[in-house]
Write a structure and sequence with these properties.
Blueprint: E1 3-6, H1 14-24, E2 28-32, H2 33-37, H3 43-52, E3 56-63, H4 73-91, E4 95-99, H5 110-126, E5 130-134, H6 145-155, E6 160-165, H7 166-171, E7 187-192, H8 202-209, H9 220-229, E8 236-238, H10 243-246, H11 250-271, E9 288-297, H12 300-311, E10 316-321, E11 326-331, E12 334-339, H13 345-353, E13 356-364, H14 367-376, E14 395-397, E15 403-407, H15 416-420, E16 421-423, E17 434-445, H16 449-459, E18 462-464, E19 468-472, E20 475-484, E21 490-496, H17 502-510, E22 514-522, H18 525-534, H19 544-554, H20 558-567, E23 570-573, E24 577-583, E25 592-600, H21 610-620
Parallel strand pairs: 1-2, 1-8, 2-3, 3-4, 4-5, 5-6, 6-7, 7-8, 9-12, 13-15, 17-21, 22-25
Antiparallel strand pairs: 9-13, 10-11, 10-16, 11-12, 14-15, 17-22, 18-20, 19-20, 20-21, 23-24, 24-25
């Protein structure tokens, strides 16, 4: 499988783009004409730079408004094409993209267009070049790959072929099964892009909202299954027009791009086992049954404050690491680790971010396979020295440079608490009925959200929910959920667009993205609230106005409303069930804990309550930034 990406897909000048593309591991690059025109070197120099990076130029594009023109525009179109052929030969590429005509002067007619391409094919052949024809979704006469293929078929010239673009086919909801009838050797290149489902003008949608395969809502896998059935073996190239990508890190976007292609073709190969597909053999997406632990980095003072806060939620000090300044707090199936080491990665993370939940461990089917898949998809493997009596726990780098560890039941990893920790007895604390980690909420700059969405969905057996807007009094925060197929893993990704929101404040004060809150599950939140109150827990105080409106809006029994009000519990429901939420005060610069109870089949996260929770949190932030604990 040869991978390629168009220079228009990432930010920077041409040299920066090519460097990022090469570093990400692509085989080739499409040279977008505007990127070349803005470069201050000759075509030969560009070609040399590309080859020095170990890349090939898979395509020069685009050549516009060619077919079906009347004279004298037709003659001028051929003259323009000859100039582009000169340029291509200097660059060192043999393929040019011609997109369907959008000019108001263009004349319709399949045969007229085919005749133009037959002549263009003759001219290209004399130079050893090829021309691919692509149907733009908004083309004046040709907007469907089936019509474009018919023009190529009637042109009947070996130097004229078809270019397929997933966006142009899927945006118009054209049946992808029609692709299967096209001979694979007549497809010169396949361009890929995904996009969120938005009802808007096709051209505007295409030019501003495309994203990598797997990041949007279009059935790109179905498109590629149809392409694979044709026997096509040429490059798979990304052509992404996205305002966010144009302002992002070229290195990060390039890595996302290659990850998306490997993930896509891995899916296609598994869906089409009878078709020979040139794709690296990697483990399948990994099942996750839950969160094994969350680890905090802190100094001694902050560790004591965190321990006090955990104590008010019923956690007990259960064990101490045999060789390190690391403590384990437990309740139900929840493991919270507090690391105050003066060296190692935890300390480095503390120096940069302050007290934070810098790492968490996932319970997976196979830890080694998880790392193997993550490595193949371009994730950064995490390793650090460990003592002779310590386990080498497989791990990768995650959001904000944090760490994700992997624990499986089929190896010694499952005995980590027994092997590395010394029990300290029952310890103080009173069980408050917390049973498991319901979800982990990670906050990041909005520009990072697609990166981490693709990261989680490509490595783990997860599904994503539609994006929702969380209303903060200071602006919007975009939120999207990634869930394991069996519900064992729940991650909420929250993208902040400005520093005035609570999420944005957290990023600014923590110097980067990371885990902003942990939600613990309870089977009886009212009983839990009673236990917490006895332990000195200080719940986030919710405005009385919220409860008055809640009762009126949902028709709640006044007795239930009073229970909620007395315990500062928020409430939501849908057609499947009910949801209860209880929040801690802020810890540090915006981190907090949440306690939830799900009843029935409720699968949401209480999004309607977010504005009231955020307003209460902003009121409670103290100048010192630290919480009051009992």
């Amino acid at each position: 499988m040869k991978t390629s990406i168009a220079t228009v897909s990432i930010s920077g000048d041409l040299r920066e783009k090519l460097a990022a593309i090469a570093t990400a591991g692509f085989d080739g690059v499409e040279i977008f004409e505007n990127d070349f025109l803005a470069f201050d070197g000759t075509p030969a120099e560009v070609g040399r730079i590309v080859r020095d990076y170990g890349l090939e130029i898979t395509l020069f594009q685009p050549f516009r408004d060619f077919e079906g023109l009347p004279e004298p525009q037709r003659a001028r179109a051929f003259d323009r094409a000859e100039r582009k052929f000169d340029l291509m030969q200097e660059l060192g590429t043999d393929l040019m993209l011609v997109c369907s005509n959008v000019s108001p002067l263009a004349l319709g007619g399949i045969d007229r267009a085919a005749a133009d391409f037959r002549e263009l094919g003759e001219r290209a052949a004399r130079r050893g070049l090829r021309v691919g024809y692509e149907a733009l979704a908004w083309g004046r006469h040709i907007s469907d790959h089936r019509d474009a293929w018919e023009i190529v078929r009637r042109a009947d010239h070996p130097n004229i072929g078809l270019i397929l673009d997933s966006f142009h086919t899927l945006a118009r909801k054209i049946d992808v099964e029609t692709i299967r009838a096209i001979p694979g050797d007549r497809i010169f290149i396949v361009q890929l892009a995904d996009a969120p489902r938005i009802d808007m003008d096709l051209l505007y949608w295409s030019r501003h909202f495309r994203n990598m395969p797997g990041e949007g809502d279009l059935p790109v896998t179905d498109f590629m299954r149809a392409v694979a059935a044709t026997g096509y073996t040429g490059p798979l190239s990304l052509e992404i027009f996205n305002d966010q990508f144009r302002g992002g890190s070229p290195k990060s976007i390039a890595v996302d791009g290659r990850r998306s292609l490997i993930y896509l073709m891995d899916q296609v190969a598994r869906a089409e086992p009878d078709i020979a597909i040139d794709v690296p053999a990697i483990p399948d997406r990994i099942s996750v049954s839950g969160v094994e632990f969350v680890e905090f980095a802190a100094n001694e003072t902050e560790a004591e404050e965190l321990a006090a806060l955990l104590g008010t939620m019923g956690f007990r000090l259960a064990a101490r690491h045999r060789h390190k300044d690391v403590l384990l707090y437990q309740q139900g199936g929840i493991n919270i680790v507090v690391n105050t080491e003066k060296e190692g990665f935890a300390h480095s993370s503390y120096v940069v971010h302050g007290a934070s939940a810098y790492a968490f461990g996932l319970k997976v089917d196979d830890a080694a396979a998880t790392v193997a898949r993550a490595r193949a998809l371009g994730a950064e493997i995490f390793e650090q020295r460990h003592g002779p009596d310590e386990l080498a726990i497989p791990a990768i780098r995650g959001v904000g440079g944090g760490v994700i560890y992997f624990i499986d039941a089929g190896s010694e990893l499952a005995r980590v608490w027994e092997l590395e920790f010394e029990p300290v007895g029952s310890g103080p604390g009173g069980d408050a009925g917390l049973t498991a980690i319901d979800h982990v909420a990670q906050t990041m700059d909005y520009e990072e959200m697609l990166t981490w969405l693709l990261f989680y969905t490509s490595i783990f057996r997860t599904r994503k929910s539609p994006m929702v807007d969380v209303v903060d009094p200071a602006g919007l925060v975009r939120s999207q959920v990634v869930e394991g197929w069996d519900g064992g893993l729940r991650l909420t990704l929250n993208g902040a667009e400005n520093r005035k929101t609570l999420a944005g404040h957290f990023i600014a004060e923590s110097f980067g993205s990371g885990v902003q809150h942990l939600a613990f599950a309870s089977t009886d939140i009212f009983a839990t609230a009673t236990h917490l109150d006895a332990l000195g827990f200080q719940a986030l105080e919710i405005s009385p106005n919220y409860y008055d409106d809640l009762e009126a809006r949902l028709g709640l029994d006044p007795a239930l409303t009073e229970q909620l009000r007395a315990a500062s519990i928020l409430y939501d429901r849908d057609e499947a069930g009910e949801y209860f939420q209880l929040y801690s005060q802020n810890y540090g610069e915006g981190f907090f804990f949440e306690i939830v109870e799900r009843r029935g089949g409720y699968r949401g996260y209480g999004a309607p309550n977010a504005p009231f929770r955020i307003a209460a949190q902003k009121r409670s932030i103290r100048p010192s930034g630290m919480p009051r604990v009992g």
